[in-house]
Structures are given as C-alpha cells and as structure tokens.
Amino acid sequence: MHAEYAPLVTEITPFLKGFTLFFWITGTWWIPLLFILAIWRHFIHHYPLSYDPQFWGMAFPLAMYTTGTLQLSHALGVDYLTIIPKVMAVVAFGGWLIGFIGLILHIITTIKEYIQRAPS
Q1: What is the DSSP secondary structure assignment for residue 118, as one 8-state letter?
Q2: Is there a domain that residue 5 lies in?
Q3: Which pick of 10, 17, 27, 85 has the fewest CB atoms within 10 Å?
Q4: Are the beta carbons of 102 and 58 closer than 8 angstroms?
C-alpha cells in the first residue's frame, strides 16, 4: 500500500533506532531521580508519609518504563536489556502495591472519621 515510502524508512531506520535509544536513556535517568526526590521529600524534609494521589504518578511511569524497555530490547534485538524489565517489574509492582495499600488505608481512615463525626 505504501511501498513508495519503504526506501525512506529503510534509510532513516538507523537514525530512528538511535533516537529511540536516546529517549530510552533519558527515561532511564528519570528512574533514580524519582527515588532521590522521594527520599528528599520524605526523609530529608520530613514530609509525612501519608497517602497522596500523586503516588500513582510514580507507579505509572515505572510500569511504562518496564514495558517500554522490554519492547525496545525486542525491537533492537538486544537480549541483555531484558534483565532490566525483569527487575523493574518487581519495582513497578511494589510501587503499585504501596500506592494501593495507601489508598485502602486512606479510605478506611476517612470512613472511620466520617462515622465518628456523624450525629448519633
């Protein structure tokens, strides 16, 4: 159907692979930064470790990074990158689990407070 574009795609494939790798490396840099910022926020500045919907903003990128790295390793044919998704899947699930447990505890606490304040 689009055979006239095939030579162009063939010519720019190395550029696309390199640029994709560049963006993956940039994404890889953000993962440690996320943890550093969490440590800075909660342990250095003593911000309370209570549930905040922004925690989902950390869980989602971890999962997407994991999936993206797995797909990148398949697309570029570099099998040694598959170790990263294996480790990051556990990290991403841990982040999701912490966020979910925090949400459940927040809901329970809110319901208890509501019941205590309700007129008898």
Answers
A1: S
A2: no
A3: 10
A4: no
Alpha helices, DSSP H, located in the chain: 6-39, 56-76, 83-117
Q: Which residue has the tokens 């919907």?
A: 53
Range of the domain at 25: 14-117
Tally of structural domains, the chain: 1
Contact assessment for residue 64 and residue 31, using Cβ atoms and an 8 Å cutoff = no
Q: Whole-prediction pTM value?
A: 0.75
Quick check: is 1 in a domain?
no
Judge whether 24 and 69 are in contact, CB under 8 Å.
yes
What residues contact 99, with CB distance under 8 A and at least 6 apart? 55, 56, 58, 59
Cβ atoms 63, 96 nearer than 8 A? yes
Q: What is the pLDDT along the chain (120 residues), one digit of tens a residue?
A: 566 667 888 888 889 899 999 999 998 998 888 889 889 988 999 888 788 888 888 888 889 999 999 999 998 899 999 999 999 999 999 989 999 999 999 999 999 999 988 776
Q: Which residues contact 41 (CB under 8 A, 6 or more apart)?
A: 47
